[in-house]
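To whoever is on call:

I kicked off a structure prediction for a single chain this morning and the downstream step that reads the tokens threw a length-mismatch warning. I double-checked the sequence; it's 92 residues and nothing unusual in it as far as I can see. Pasting both halves so you can look.
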Amino acid sequence: MGTITPTNGNQFHTEDFGGRSGSSNAGITTPFGRYGYSNGGSLDPALGGKETMSPSNFGKNEKDYTTQQIGLSPGGKVSGGAMYSIGQTWVW
């Protein structure tokens, strides 16, 4: 389950997905359940290096957006993980 939230009071349109974006994800598995969380959004193309990894830089420009997702599923062996990703999306 997740949300897309437009920033700067703008309405979100599908073409707003075009451009640069980043996401940070973390999850843990226990015998009682698997739990995951993701936070992301659009990124200013001028940002580089560590600046792209800061969640405070998601959704800062006009027509930008932020995203949040959570996930739950049945449990398993104990494990955990985290990941950061950055990408470029083109919309036709």
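Update from on-call: the warning came from a stale cache, not from the record. Cleared it. Sanity check on the structure: The longest strand covers residues 19-30.
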